[in-house]
């Protein structure tokens, strides 16, 4: 019995540990452990260690209380018996402990009643009591250590037992709970996120609101400008009830599509030529003035007061977008870049260059050869094709001979071409001619070929 005080001290230390694992959430547990027994110490006999194993079932039946049935089988050196004896027991025990389901160390004390057999016979009652502790290794599994004293109803059968093993809490498999899906990673789960693929704050149910005006971008007609919900997120700077995006005058309040109309004539001040005097739109918002031709332009501002027209009061007879008073070809449609006249075609210019080389005269004379009539007929046809154009005819010679004679000859040759075209029916007002003698060569006069090229009559269509 000399070791009993030490044993009791060890039991006290274990019992003072903080908590016990088994609880109402998982009331059922199984245990399995190795058991080492000693039948000598408590009976003043020699100390001998036997061994065996234990399996058991425990259930939590009330706060701080578990009820269990441990079953043991092993070998022991029992006083008065030679050799090892097979021992077995079945107990009913209660465990007391402060239960915390999350504790890492769970101590307990226990006590109960059991029936003990030697070689599966000669049974008698024993009263087990002691203490133990469970050390958590996972959510449902523990390592168990236990010291047990058993008081027997037979002499020399009191014994001590030390157990080491496992305790496992019975439980149902819990379904794996997956975190809620948050595709855009904005902290709002997809199930609540109105914009699951575009990150946004929780205040707008996970939708982006770039300008922070409380209207999400997908509904915001002005996502980069803070605005009002009534205008789909767009601002109304002047507060006239027309959002800036639709307001031609966003900084000036007005009742006419967001613009002011000081004279209330239905024409916005910016478009009203007389913003403080009411007038019809046909007169640009000004009071009516004399309009002799009735084209909506007062005679004071009408550039063509006797002819009705939409272009500053002037007509556009050929419909080419240029008023007749500015159009050099008012009856022939043309390009505005060319003063309202049709552009001279490239092939026409090339043909006139051909004519310049092929108009021929009698030697030393201004008399046209018969072959030149056909060439000049082409010039006549071109003038008919471009009725609004005039033509400049210029004569040129090579440097052979007297300069003054060359100048006179070039003038006479240009006049011959001019007179031929007048005879064919071209109005004299459309033609003008001049001679330049040898002052404008186009080739080298030192060669026969160059001199031939310099003897020429050029034709050029012009606008005036």
Short structural summary:
The chain is of the alpha+beta class and 464 residues long. Helix content is 15%, strand content 26%. The strands form 2 sheets. It has an 8-stranded antiparallel β-barrel with strand order 1-2-3-4-5-6-7-8. Strands 10-9-11 form a 3-stranded mixed sheet.
Description:
The structure is a single chain. The strands form two sheets. An eight-stranded antiparallel beta barrel has the order 1-2-3-4-5-6-7-8. Helix 2 runs antiparallel to helix 3 (370-385). Strand 3 (65-76) and strand 4 (85-96) form a beta hairpin. The N and C termini lie far apart (143 Å). It is built from five helices and eleven strands, in the order αββββββββααβαβαβ. The chain has 464 residues and is α+β, with helices and mostly antiparallel strands. The chain has helices at residues 4-15, 346-358, 370-385, 403-424, 448-454, and strands at 28-38, 49-62, 65-76, 85-96, 105-118, 121-136, 141-152, 159-169, 390-396, 431-435, 456-462.
Keywords:
8-stranded antiparallel beta barrel, 3-stranded mixed β-sheet, alpha+beta, disordered N terminus, single chain, about 475 residues
Blueprint of the fold:
Layout (H helix, E strand, L loop, with lengths): L3 H12 L12 E11 L10 E14 L2 E12 L8 E12 L8 E14 L2 E16 L4 E12 L6 E11 L176 H13 L11 H16 L4 E7 L6 H22 L6 E5 L12 H7 L1 E7 L2
Parallel strand pairs: 9-10
Antiparallel strand pairs: 1-2, 1-8, 2-3, 3-4, 4-5, 5-6, 6-7, 7-8, 9-11
Helix pairs in contact: 2-3, 3-4
């Amino acid at each position: 019995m000399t070791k009993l005080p030490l044993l009791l001290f060890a039991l006290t230390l274990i019992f003072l540990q903080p908590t016990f694992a088994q609880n109402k959430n998982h009331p059922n547990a199984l245990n399995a452990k190795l058991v080492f027994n000693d039948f000598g110490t408590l009976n003043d006999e020699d100390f001998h260690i036997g061994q065996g194993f234990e399996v058991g079932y425990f259930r939590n039946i009330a706060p701080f209380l578990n009820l269990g049935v441990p079953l043991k089988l092993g070998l022991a050196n029992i006083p008065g018996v030679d050799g090892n004896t097979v021992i077995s027991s079945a107990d009913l025990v209660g465990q007391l402990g402060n239960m915390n389901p999350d504790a890492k160390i769970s101590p307990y004390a226990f006590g109960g009643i059991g029936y003990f057999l030697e070689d599966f016979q000669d049974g008698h009652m024993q009263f087990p009591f002691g203490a133990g502790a469970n050390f958590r290794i996972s959510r449902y599994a523990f390592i168990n250590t236990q010291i047990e004293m058993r008081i027997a109803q037979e002499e020399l059968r009191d014994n001590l037992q030390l157990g080491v093993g496992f305790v496992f809490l019975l439980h149902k498999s819990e379904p794996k709970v997956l975190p809620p899906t948050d595709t855009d990673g904005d902290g709002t789960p997809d199930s609540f996120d109105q914009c699951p693929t575009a990150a946004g704050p929780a205040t707008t149910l996970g939708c982006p609101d770039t300008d922070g005006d409380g209207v999400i971008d997908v509904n915001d007609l002005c996502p980069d400008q803070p605005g009002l919900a009534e205008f789909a997120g767009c601002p109304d700077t002047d507060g006239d009830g027309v959002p800036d995006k639709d307001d031609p005058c966003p900084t000036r309040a007005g009742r006419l599509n967001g613009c002011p109309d000081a004279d209330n004539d239905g024409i916005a001040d910016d478009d009203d030529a007389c913003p403080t005097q009411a007038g019809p739109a046909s007169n640009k918002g000004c009071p009516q003035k004399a309009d002799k031709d009735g084209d909506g332009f007062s005679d004071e501002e009408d550039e063509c007061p006797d002819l009705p027209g939409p272009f500053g009061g002037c007509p556009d007879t050929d419909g080419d977008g240029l008023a007749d008073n500015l159009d050099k070809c008012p009856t022939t449609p043309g390009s505005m870049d060319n003063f309202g006249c049709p552009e001279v075609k490239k092939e026409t210019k090339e043909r006139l260059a051909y004519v310049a080389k092929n108009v021929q005269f009698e030697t030393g004379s201004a008399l046209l050869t018969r072959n030149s009539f056909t060439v000049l007929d082409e010039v006549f046809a071109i003038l008919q094709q471009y009725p609004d154009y005039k033509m400049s005819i210029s004569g040129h010679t090579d440097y052979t001979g007297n300069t003054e004679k060359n100048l006179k000859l070039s003038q006479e040759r240009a006049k011959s071409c001019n007179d031929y075209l007048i005879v064919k029916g071209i109005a004299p007002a459309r033609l003008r001619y001049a001679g330049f003698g040898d002052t404008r060569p186009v080739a080298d006069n030192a060669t026969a070929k160059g001199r031939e090229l310099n003897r020429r009559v050029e034709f050029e269509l012009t606008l005036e």
